[in-house]
Amino acid sequence: MANIAWSDVMDIPGATADGFGNTTTGWQTMVINVVNTQLDPDEFDGESGPILKMARCMLACHYSALGKQGASGAVVGESEGEVSAQYAIPNFDLSLLRLTSYGRAVLTLANSAVGGATVL
Known about the structure:
The chain is mainly alpha-helical. The protein has helices spanning 6-10, 25-38, 50-68, 101-112, and strands at residues 75-80, 83-88. It has one domain (6-112).
């Protein structure tokens, strides 16, 4: 399986320097769950392929970089009595890949993979 763990993400050059090790466990779990299902293995080198694994790691770095830059998705609010809270749901949109060097690396990997990853 090319499923990744956060330790795989931290092996990516720049991940430590960019502070991705300082993210919360909740963020890490959410990102890992998304990237392990978001990329189509058939568009890369198969579910057990090293290119897919690297692409998933780079995608996790991409989302983390966007999160650190303050990029986010829709704002959701909730309230109970006089107490309210608003927060942003992360935007896990592949159309934003060109915004970070990690996202551009995902595109490069997709273009070099078997099948050409035409969906990206």
